[in-house]
TrEMBL record:
Protein name: F-box/lrr-repeat protein 5
PANTHER family (UniProt xref): F-BOX ONLY PROTEIN 48-RELATED (PTHR12874), F-BOX PROTEIN (PTHR12874:SF26)
A Pfam family it matches: F-box-like
Source organism per UniProt: Plakobranchus ocellatus
Region (Disordered): 290-312
């Protein structure tokens, strides 16, 4: 059992209690799900997707705001500890997210196949839980004592506040990127709920699909996400592949919600706040890890407080990575056949795994821009 630390400097317990609650919730959900019923399975998949997105965000926050600072302290003391560098390298979050994503295909199959998938999902969740709970216990038992040893009391108090704040930002912030993700994740079931008496009387529904698509072609991706929630018909129209011939996630993460953005400049500072592209600050480069361990301390810090500017950059990377993940999971499976151009230049939230999935989901892709990224040949295997 982990020692009891003063509450104000106990960095792990509060976020871990939330993660354990999520695990208990998904175990309860999967046990009560009737996999013979398509809608039951679809509802479970949506809930599991939300759970694993939050679990992954939790790991990212720990990696960026706790483990990186701890590595800096250890390096300053000329100490090397492999456990600090590899604590998030094998928690199987990406595998679980892929399995949940596959479930949407199984949901459309006959009842027998859905039950087969259900057995596979239950076993995978059981294995993941057996791995993840001890992982959190290890962090409390091993890393919290190290934090107590190498950080001052005031530093730990500030670190705990920062970590809890970052978890709160993930859960509640209504940024344009998160709104886009939420809009993209709307299920067909929720779309059905919008078919009201007023909607049936809407004169726009009298227009032919060809004219509606012409109107929608003037909208940007963020507006498409909003239109997706109007009705089942509009949800189908906004996911017409002809409307998604080009995707520009890096521009969208910067707030430029356009299907025809100007190219990002290659000059220092152009298109990025504070000359960001000069820094080797990447979100995810290790394809065997769910959270990047390679970023390390390339920003030159050896401990201490991070500036507001740096936190803003890290926050932007998280937003970009979340937007890319939403595109791969919820948008490209429906519109990927229409995508001819994919501009990912200067992306700091990109990984080989994401590029590989984009290539699979966009079979008619003609232009792929990956300049100024750390994508390697593994993405094309």
């Amino acid at each position: 059992m982990a020692p009891h630390w003063p509450e104000e400097v106990d960095v792990f317990t509060v976020p871990h209690s939330r993660m354990k609650k999520l695990i208990n919730q998904y175990n309860s959900m999967v046990m009560s799900t009737d996999f013979r019923d398509e809608m039951h399975l679809m509802s479970l998949l949506q809930n599991l997707n939300n759970v694993f997105n939050e679990l992954k965000a939790h790991e990212r926050i720990e990696n960026i705001f706790i483990m990186r600072e701890l590595r800096s302290k250890l390096r300053a003391a000329s100490i090397s500890d492999p456990a600090v560098c590899n604590c998030h390298s094998d928690n199987r979050l990406t595998e679980m997210q892929d399995l949940v994503l596959d479930g949407y295909k199984w949901a459309k199959m006959p009842q027998r196949e859905r039950q087969m998938y259900g057995r596979k999902l239950r076993q995978a969740l059981e294995n993941f839980t057996e791995n993840f709970l001890p992982h959190m216990d290890m962090e409390e038992q091993v890393f919290q004592p190290m934090l107590m040893e190498y950080f001052s009391y005031e530093e730990l108090k500030a670190l705990k506040v920062k970590v809890i704040k970052q978890h709160g930002i993930y859960k509640y912030e209504e940024s344009s990127c998160e709104k886009f993700v939420a809009d993209s994740c709307e299920s067909e079931e929720s779309s059905d709920e919008h078919i009201t008496k007023e909607e049936k009387q809407c004169q726009l529904d009298c227009l032919p699909n060809e004219l509606c698509l012409q109107i929608l072609s003037w909208l940007g991706p963020q507006d498409m996400g909003r239109m997706n929630q109007v009705s089942r018909r509009w949800a189908n129209l906004t996911h017409d592949p002809k409307l998604w011939t080009g995707i520009f996630p890096v521009h969208w993460a910067m707030g430029n919600w356009s299907f025809h953005p100007q190219p990002l400049g290659e000059d220092a500072g152009q298109g990025w706040p504070g000359g960001w592209q000069k820094e080797q600050l990447y979100f995810c480069t290790d394809e065997d890890a769910d959270v990047d361990e390679s970023g390390g301390d390339s920003d030159g810090h050896t401990g201490g407080e991070r500036t507001d500017s740096e936190e803003g950059r890290l926050k932007h990377i998280l937003q970009e990575a979340k937007l890319l993940t939403a595109l791969v999971k919820h948008v490209l499976p429906k519109v990927g056949s229409g995508v001819r151009q994919c501009d990912l230049a200067f992306s700091r939230g990109l990984s080989n795994n994401l590029v590989h999935k984009i290539l699979k989901l966009c079979p008619n892709l003609e232009i792929l821009d990956l300049k100024q990224t750390l994508v390697g040949d593994a993405a094309f295997r």
